[in-house]
Amino acid sequence: MSEESIDKKPLQKFRWISRFHAGWAVFKQSLLGKIGLTLLTFFALMALCSFIPPLVNPMYQPMAGVDPEISTVTGPSMRHWLGTDFMGRDLLSQLLAGARIAFMVGVSAAFMSVFLGTTVGMIAGYMGKFVDTFLMRLADIVMVMPALVVLLMLAALFGQLNIWFIVFFIALFRWPGVSRVIRAQTLSLKHRPFIEAARVAGASHLRIIFRHIMPNVLPLSFLYMTFQVTSAIIIEAALAFLGFGDPRTVSWGMMLQWVWKTGNMFKAPYWLLPPGICISLITLSFYMLGRAMDEVLDPRLRKEWETG
User: What's the pTM?
Assistant: First the structure.
């Protein structure tokens, strides 16, 4: 083994660490990023705290727990900090459980859609005109289909949908936009000298795609994942509010559906406002995080902010 190859190993080993530190230094300078990360940390703590109330007392179970002394809508008290719903269930427990569902739906759907979109985009950009045309026309067909309307039609046909069914279909309808961006990036990468060198060295197509191209498009995929989370959370909340959500889970959209269906929309602001505010803030936090990541990945945008 030559001395040159030995010297390159430490550089390759710590390349990703140095990139992370450089990106984190830029991220810390972004006010949007810091606000978004703070909000996201707050909601993550809410999701973790959702497991505590049912352990303290069974009446704080968000779905099945009922206060034996209360059977109607009541305002905030020392026993129920946000009050109770029409069945005497604790609203704070439901709000905390909704944070857990929001993270589960948003992150799961976003990860699945970005994984599918990244894979399709890399294959379409690298494998040639026929495969590229077929995959991009498929993406166009899926892209023009309104996800919420299709989900409402499925819910009308099959009744209320399982939460994982909703996650799967959100991911299925959200990948085309990611695939187009990754395809464009792959088209610019496949003619770079290091790709040509790998091809001349006898590397297979799969090795070139997943070993050489994928590490260069993953930061862009992560950026789009932050934006995909917001749309997934809003779609799930809309379905639950319209009455087509999973009846076995307590989400923020389900809380809004209950307050509307029981006629307490304008009578119980302590029931109406918290889930609505949480939906707005968690989507805002992911959007701010995505904008900050955009500054990290795009030096031109970062220079515009610095000079503006």
Answer: 0.86
